[in-house]
Amino acid sequence: MTTLRSILFNTAFYTNMILRMIILSPIYFLLPRKTAFFVPKGWASSSSWLFAKIVGTTFTVEGLENIPKGGYILAPKHQSFWDTFALLPYLDDPVYILKRELMWIPIFGWYVAKQRMIPVDRGARGKVMAKVIERTKVEMANGRQLIIYPEGTRRPPGAAPEYKYGIARLYRDLDVPVVPVAMHPGLFWPRRKSQRYPGHFKVRILPPIEPGLDADVFFERLMRELEGASDALLIETVRDNPHVPLPPSAIRRLEELGAR
User: Fold this and answer.
1) Record keywords: Metal-binding included (predicted)?
2) For 101-128, how does the pLDDT look when each residue is reduced to its tens digit (9 = 90+)?
């Protein structure tokens, strides 16, 4: 049954995305940029609805009161394709720094370009990265929320952290709060797999780390607070969903925490 539901959901998920792009494109490209954001936000909400109705997976967002007004950096754990879109409806005017290759995808790249997302060559250094930061400053000055994953790429639940120092440089140069977000969608929507699992999980938004700290101090604090919250949430999520198959990384981490 899980396999059948996974196939049905994956089919519905991509069909929903393609049809919305085709049908709503004329409206999307004619509207002002920020107003047009209702299209991707609507797709995100409908995708979460499909996930709940077909697979039986739901989520709760905790800590919305921790989100500051205006511009800030949202720093979520990154485990799944789910967390690239599911939080969009909760943000006013988000912006991503993303691989420049994504801008070359027909239709999708045009959608991204309209929202003034910031493309970057992952191998870029020096002047190129300086230009990316300057571009980001312009967007943040307009009150936008930068979404950046501190580990850079998807990691399985419970995996040893591999934070990239780039977020510390952005924290220093942008001079805005950083809001850590702990969650474990990877237990229900695993990376690099087509299987989807039913259950319920929480997205926990932590109190913001205010600007003004030394970059190294900030970096250590971010890792300590986000990993501590992630460990607590992993124990809680597995306890509440005993049927969910665990990847080896989660099993090892639970054993290290004495929770298994």
Assistant:
1) no
2) 878 888 888 898 899 998 887 665 656 6
